[in-house]
Specification:
The complex is a heterodimer of chains A (396) and B (294). Chain A is 44% helix and 9% strand. By secondary structure, chain A is an alpha+beta fold. In chain A, the strands form 2 sheets. A 6-stranded mixed β-sheet of chain A has the order 3-4-5-8-6-7. Chain B has 294 residues and is an alpha/beta fold. Chain B has helices at residues 6-15, 18-28, 34-40, 46-63, 80-85, 117-136, 151-161, 178-182, 206-213, 242-284; strands spanning 90-93, 105-109, 112-115, 141-144, 164-166, 191-194, 218-222, 233-236. Chain B has a 5-stranded parallel β-sheet with strand order 5-4-6-7-8. A 3-stranded antiparallel β-sheet of chain B has the order 1-3-2. In chain B, strand 6, helix 9 and strand 7 (218-222) form a beta-alpha-beta unit. Classes of the chains: A alpha+beta (396), B alpha/beta (294). The interface between A and B is medium-sized, with 20 and 24 residues.
């Protein structure tokens, strides 16, 4: 708040100075206050406060131009990297032959410790293929004739891919027509190969072709591949299509049920963990018991004086109508009282899954007992008093 | 090399790979070629004549076809009857007619314009002859067409001849701003062949105007709704029917292949002749004893 006042005072003073006539009477207080703060300056120094626009011209700076790396340069870099790797292994006292990339990373982190937060700004030593972006070699021969017949389109790899795919499509249709003419054509269902895989995304395709693509290009390509799918393909076409599919890890929708374990006395019990905010809990639920709950060795009535927390602990049992039938021993750390209660509730609910039918597990899931609460404390933002609370707004 | 007109540009097409021509000669003829005569320490007398003869050779190779009106005999590739069978004479409806195509139209039948095949034959002969000469002089030929129906066919034709094709979306500055779009030091096409002069919105293809700007000669199949003005060798004909486009693609492919084969033959022939000539000259004057100064 002080800074803008000083600058406006400075400008004001400069204007007054330059105009010559000093109209101090109405602003005398302001002027004197400003004069007290400002050092005694001469006219030239005050004139430096004037704002001027700097004309920036586009310069052919190396950083702005696209860097092109020749094949020899990259080869030299790879040789230097390999030699450097061996030196590093010797330095660290390891075997140069079995020095992997992880070892290199560890060695560099040890030799050049950096406290920088930005991981990409820290010193790295990686293979040049990962550092220098992949670029296309020169596209034409000595006589100037380009190598690829679609060079003059600009996107030769992409259009050549489209050309090949369309060629395959035409061949398949011709084949199908021939079979139909002979009467040997038969419909076959073919959806098994597609489950668990997806078409590759635009970035992956760009990386494959080493060319920039637009969204429409990518969509056209996928549409062509989908059209190819609808036809009956031979082995070569299947391979061609599979080269553009990527596998997708299918996450199982089933609840993970803890196995029941038996302790020394032959008592059946089940253990599981739960988290809420920064509280972590581990609960051991015994199959037969009388409804006693011990938290960190203390009875839950004494550990949680507030009724609400105890209700949270009892909720899983109440939901399954097993209020006095199980014993619970749990440990909890971190968080506050409500967070600890929530963590224990989740741990207990997960442990109970092993003693209960699948239908009841599904009911518990639908009730939200088996879902970890993802809410965490929202950070305070600058310019505000809290995460959401703003400073008091004053009209003037 | 700043060619003023189309003709000088074409003549300089053959001139540019001259050093390459020398390399070819050096590699292909292990016999009495220019560098080897120096290493063997032969007579100074053959040495000055050898470089001249290779230049001479190049000039002869390039000037020989220009002495004949139809060196590549393109007339035999087609006839008016074959054009008629391929439905080349069928134009668009009279309402689509372009004003500048009226000289090429024979008449109109039931509202559909019919193209004069005699004129087409004459224009086609000129166009094919020109294409053959460009291919003979190792020029870059670019097939352009924006009809999606024939895109695959045109690209296959180009690949078969060993030339280039562009049947996709034409980026604005491809010809006029080539060093930026295609890379510094790129060589532009020496001939553009349009299988379809219009683009997908029935407007003249940008490449027609850009080729005219860059002094690149064009050969184009102009239909009754096209503007033949900026095309160097227009060929009035049907560009929409499959048999017609297939015929034109076939004609261009055969012409270009023929021209390239002819070039190889002529080069081999002249190389043989120069070899024989040098051999004949070699035993005639015995090499002097003094070593040739380096």
């Amino acid at each position: 708040m002080a800074a803008p006042c000083v600058s406006c005072c400075a400008l004001l003073s400069y204007r007054l100075f330059f105009r010559g006539k000093v109209n101090l009477a109405p602003r005398q207080v302001l002027w004197k206050a400003a004069a007290a703060e400002l050092p005694t300056v001469s006219g030239s120094q005050i004139s430096r406060l004037r704002h001027t626009t700097v004309l920036t011209t586009k310069k052919n700076v190396a950083a702005l131009r696209r860097e092109t790396y020749t094949v020899d340069f990259i080869k030299k870099q790879i040789d230097e990297f390999n030699i450097g790797k061996r030196h590093l292994a010797n330095m660290m006292g390891e075997d140069p032959e079995t020095f992997t990339q992880e070892d290199i990373d560890r060695a560099i982190a040890y030799l050049f410790p950096s406290g920088l937060f930005e991981k990409r700004a820290r010193p790295i030593m990686k293979h040049p293929e990962q550092i220098f972006p992949k670029q296309k070699a020169i596209q034409w021969g000595e006589d100037g004739r380009p190598f690829h017949f679609l060079f003059y389109t600009g996107k030769q790899s992409y259009y050549s891919l489209m050309h090949d795919a369309y060629g395959k499509l035409l061949n398949l249709e011709k084949h199908k027509n021939e079979l139909q003419a002979k009467g040997l054509f038969s419909e076959e269902a073919k959806t098994k190969d597609l489950i668990g895989s997806r078409w590759l995304i635009k970035e992956e395709l760009e990386e494959m072709l080493v060319e920039k693509l637009s969204d429409q290009d990518y969509e056209q390509f996928i549409r062509l591949l989908e059209r190819l799918l609808t036809l009956q393909c031979g082995a070569a076409e299947e391979e061609f299509l599979q080269s553009f599919r990527r596998s997708v890890t299918i996450q199982s929708k089933k609840q993970l049920i803890e196995p029941v374990r038996y302790d020394k006395q032959g008592m059946a019990f089940s253990t599981s963990e739960g988290k809420r905010k920064s509280a972590k809990a581990e609960a051991v639920v015994y199959e037969h018991g009388s409804g006693r709950i011990k938290v960190n060795g203390i009875d839950y009535l004494l550990y949680f004086p507030v009724t609400q927390d105890r209700e949270q602990l009892m909720f899983p049992f109440h939901f399954l109508d097993r209020l006095g039938k199980h014993d619970v021993t749990c440990t909890v750390s971190g968080g506050g009282r409500s967070a600890q209660a929530g963590a224990i509730r989740l741990a207990v609910a997960r442990a109970l899954c092993s003693f209960v039918t699948e239908e009841e597990v599904e009911w518990m899931r639908q009730a939200g007992l088996l879902t970890a609460d993802p809410r965490i404390r929202e950070r305070k933002k600058p310019g505000q008093e809290g995460a959401r609370r703003k400073f008091t707004w004053k009209k003037r | 090399m700043a060619p003023a007109g189309t003709l000088t540009r074409l003549l300089s097409v053959g001139v540019r790979p001259r050093p390459l021509g020398l390399h070819i000669l050096k590699a292909a003829t292990p016999g009495p070629a220019w560098p080897s005569s120096r290493t063997l320490g032969n007579a100074t007398a053959p040495a000055p004549s050898e470089p001249e003869s290779s230049d001479d050779l190049q000039d002869r190779v390039l000037s020989e076809p220009l002495k004949h009106s139809d060196f590549f005999n393109v007339k035999e590739l087609f006839s008016v009857r074959s054009l008629f069978n391929a439905r080349v004479h069928l134009g668009h409806k009279a309402g689509c007619r372009h004003r500048f195509m009226e000289p090429y139209i024979f008449g109109s039948r039931l509202g559909q314009d019919i193209i004069d095949l005699d004129q087409t034959a004459a224009h086609l002969q000129l166009a094919l002859n020109f294409t053959a000469h460009v291919a003979y002089r190792k020029g870059i030929i670019l097939f352009v067409g924006r009809n999606r129906q024939f895109s695959h066919l045109i690209e296959n034709t180009a690949r078969a001849c060993g030339e280039y094709a562009h049947t996709r979306y034409f980026k604005g500055g491809l010809l006029t701003n080539a060093p930026l779009l295609l890379g510094p030091g790129v060589r532009l096409p020496d001939l553009l062949i349009f299988l379809n002069t219009l683009n997908n919105v029935f407007e003249p293809h940008v490449a027609v105007r850009d080729a005219a700007k860059m002094n690149i000669p064009t050969v184009g199949i102009v239909d009754t709704n096209c503007n033949p003005c900026l095309i160097t060798y227009p060929v009035p004909g049907n560009d929409d029917s499959p048999p017609s486009v297939r015929l034109f693609c076939h004609l261009f492919r055969v012409t270009i292949s023929r021209a390239k084969d002819r070039r190889r033959q002529v080069e081999a022939l002249y190389r043989l002749q120069s070899q024989e000539g040098a051999e004949r000259r070699g035993p005639a004057d015995p090499p002097p004893p003094e070593a040739r100064p380096a």
